[in-house]
Amino acid sequence: MSNRGPVEYRVEHKYLVPESLRDALRRVIAPFVRPDAHAALMHDVRLGTYLGYTVRSIYFDTSSFAHFFANEDGLPVRAKPRIRGYDAGHADAIAFLEVKRRNGAVGSKARAPIAFASVPAFLEHGDVDAFVRDSDAFPSARANAGQFLHRLWRFALQPVVLVTYDREPHIGTIEDSLRITFDTSVRSVAYPRVADLYTDEGMKASLRGYFILEVKHDSHFGYPSWLRPFLSTHGIVRRALSKYYTCTTDQGIVHSYTKVRALASADWTSGTDRPDAPLGASTLSRKELSWIR
């Protein structure tokens, strides 16, 4: 949804907050933030009316769930490819090919916009120039799309889970690099196809009664000191929260207590350490591509 550019670097802090504290937290941050320009009126029977949008992401992983266990092991440097869309699907919907990286507390996101209707053909044929265009907002779109495709082919990645949630976004008024978001109604579908990005059927809920508070800022501006008293008063501490990890666990796709079980639980058996594939020449077989459409 953001048009800040193809790569975003921010220090990230995540907290799990009871939904009962949502209004109180809104009052605390209100003097320092404004709504994200992309937000529209949404209504939730529990939360009332607020400005927000729906985020939809299909996450990819290897047959041995390397990304899942990198998160569980707390590896400081890791990356997760995903396809992201917003709100409801329509004929002209735009999706984003993304590689979300983390280096310690700093997160970055390389992204490339693409017509959602073109994603299956792009994934099958791998022709970056035919489906992705650079622009002022995304000057490195083609390079980022090639990066996404490279990881997909090299490690034989396949979709593991569709994660959907409703986001209430706020932007700092003093420093617009500050971004505060409330992510609620986290829900998921296991082993989606690309065509399922905008589905709302068969969802399994996670983190009931809570929302995820994300505070992102650049290293120069620093953490907003005015937020600390509220968090301290309510005993809310920073946590390592991954929606992909949470939903994959809740779906029973892989169990966090054993890596051996992950190999037995996988729905595919292709190898994951393939040699580098030149862009434009897919190494995936037709059977392995069955999830694309």
Structural features, described:
The chain is an alpha+beta fold and 293 residues long. It is built from 8 helices and 11 strands. It has helices at 22-29, 66-72, 119-125, 128-131, 141-154, 228-233, 243-250, 259-265, and strands at residues 7-18, 33-35, 40-44, 48-61, 77-86, 94-103, 106-115, 158-172, 179-190, 204-205, 210-217. Strands 1-7-6-5-4-8-9-11 form an 8-stranded antiparallel beta barrel. The longest helix has 14 residues, at 141-154. The chain starts with 6 loop residues before the first strand and ends in a 28-residue tail after the last helix. The relative contact order is 0.21.
Rg from Cα? 19 Å
Structural class: alpha+beta
> Whole-number average pLDDT?
86
Task: Spell the H/E element sequence.
Answer: EHEEEHEEEHHHEEEEHHH
Q: Distance between the terminal alpha carbons, to the nearest Å?
A: 24 Å
Q: State the assembly state of the protein chains.
A: single chain
Query: Could you tell me the number of beta strands?
Result: 11
Please write out the topology:
Layout lengths: L6 E12 L3 H8 L3 E3 L4 E5 L3 E14 L4 H7 L4 E10 L7 E10 L2 E10 L3 H7 L2 H4 L9 H14 L3 E15 L6 E12 L13 E2 L4 E8 L10 H6 L9 H8 L8 H7 L28
Antiparallel strand pairs: 1-7, 1-11, 2-8, 3-4, 4-5, 4-8, 5-6, 6-7, 8-9, 9-10, 9-11
